[in-house]
Amino acid sequence: MTLTVFDLAIGLQKNQPELKEKLNAWIETNIKNGKLNAIFEKYHGEPIPQEILNR
Known about the structure:
- This protein has helices at 17-32, 35-44, 50-53.
- It is mainly alpha-helical.
- The relative contact order is 0.13.
């Protein structure tokens, strides 16, 4: 079996820039403190791939 890395995304309406800013801030904060990786591991059984974190 070949495992591949794929991006996960959240769809937002274009007229909600404040929501986009808040989500981006939440993601950045929780990548730095490890909480996002813990959530990802809980549901995917492995850490967030480095290729995604380097973007």
